[in-house]
């Protein structure tokens, strides 16, 4: 796993966005994996800027979201499908029908999971998956105890995740849905490239487990240690519990010309 410690969120966002722009310019029909949450917002801002400056076009690219709340109405601002429209999709030139999310209001939620995995495969599989991490070590909405090989499925949120996400629901935990439809760890591991971003002290323990802990369902993100192309970009606060922090910094500062995000 490549670990890149950066001074702040802006430098993390620029590095990741540059890598995505390079990919889409090389492969215009690239399949991008979108994460929600606050961590990737800087990346989306940088991508919008690159598009406005004429450095990239997304018209032949695809977008697949990681997860969705179950049961939120179609016009709810926190429905992840609406969040991605607001933070990236509506500002760039994705063609109609090219950005998708799991359907959290499907009549048959059990069938909606495998159907979503098939859509991703039919588009060619995810080339570049953006990820954040929950304070309990979840990626997408795969909570502690998740199967490492599962596809898209319904997940029950932990009280900690609902508490963390209450800030998006006027601080009222009772308004945070209890269930989500999320790509499973098996789905996420099929992406050709995983790029996880995290900032702040609150993520330090989850980041230490992800990078230096044993692979364990108790910290679902640790499955990334088994991915052949996984990069983690963090600020100093999120890196604060890493024993090998100085080595990671040295490795990045002394990277070879072809080594990038
Ligand atoms: N389902 C999302 C995850 O995809 C996200 O990575 C995580 C961290 O969110 P944030 O970046 O806001 O800390 O929590 C949410 O619950």
From TrEMBL:
Any one GO CC term of the record: cytoplasm
Keyword Hydrolase carried by entry: yes
Domain Glucosamine/galactosamine-6-phosphate isomerase, first and last residues per copy: 11-231
Keywords, alphabetical: Carbohydrate metabolism, Hydrolase
Enzyme Commission code: 3.5.99.6
Transmembrane parts of this sequence: none
Molecular function (Gene Ontology), one example: identical protein binding
Catalytic EC class: hydrolase
InterPro entries to which the protein is assigned, alphabetical: Glc/Gal-6P_isomerase (IPR006148), Glucosamine6P_isomerase (IPR004547), Glucosamine6P_isomerase_CS (IPR018321), NagB/RpiA_transferase-like (IPR037171)
Active-site residue numbers: 67 (proton acceptor), 136 (for ring-opening step), 138 (proton acceptor), 143 (for ring-opening step)
Reaction(s) this enzyme catalyzes, per UniProt: alpha-D-glucosamine 6-phosphate + H2O = beta-D-fructose 6-phosphate + NH4(+)
Pathway stated in the Swiss-Prot or TrEMBL entry: Amino-sugar metabolism; N-acetylneuraminate degradation; D-fructose 6-phosphate from N-acetylneuraminate: step 5/5
GO biological process assignments: carbohydrate metabolic process; glucosamine catabolic process; N-acetylglucosamine catabolic process; N-acetylneuraminate catabolic process
Homology family: Belongs to the glucosamine/galactosamine-6-phosphate isomerase family. NagB subfamily.
Described purpose of this protein according to its UniProt entry: Catalyzes the reversible isomerization-deamination of glucosamine 6-phosphate (GlcN6P) to form fructose 6-phosphate (Fru6P) and ammonium ion.
Protein name per UniProt: Glucosamine-6-phosphate deaminase
The gene coding this protein: nagB
């Amino acid at each position: 796993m490549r670990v890149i410690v950066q001074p702040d969120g802006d430098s993390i966002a620029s590095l990741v966005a540059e890598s995505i722009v390079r990919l889409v310019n090389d492969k215009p029909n690239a399949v991008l994996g979108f994460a929600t949450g606050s961590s990737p917002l800087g990346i989306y801002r940088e991508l919008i800027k690159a598009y406005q400056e004429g450095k990239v076009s997304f018209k032949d690219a695809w977008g697949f979201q990681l997860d969705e709340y179950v049961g939120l109405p179609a016009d709810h601002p926190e429905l992840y499908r609406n969040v991605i429209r607001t933070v990236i999709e509506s500002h760039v030139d994705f063609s109609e029908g090219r950005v998708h999310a799991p359907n959290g209001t499907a009549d048959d939620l059990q069938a909606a999971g495998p159907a979503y995995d098939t859509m991703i495969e039919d588009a060619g599989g995810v080339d570049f998956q953006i990820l954040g991490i929950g304070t309990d070590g979840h990626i997408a909405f795969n909570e502690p105890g998740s199967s490492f090989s599962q596809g898209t499925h319904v997940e029950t949120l932990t009280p900690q995740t609902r508490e963390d996400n209450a800030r998006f629901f006027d601080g009222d935990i009772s308004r945070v849905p209890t269930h989500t439809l999320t790509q499973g760890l098996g789905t996420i591991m099929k992406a050709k490239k995983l790029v996880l971003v995290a900032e702040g002290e609150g993520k330090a323990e989850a980041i230490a487990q992800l990078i230096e802990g044993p692979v364990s369902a108790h910290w679902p993100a640790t499955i990334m240690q088994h991915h052949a192309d996984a990069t983690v970009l963090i600020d100093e606060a999120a890196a604060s519990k890493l024993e090998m922090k100085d080595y990671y910094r040295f490795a990045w500062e002394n990277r070879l010309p072809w080594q990038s995000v």
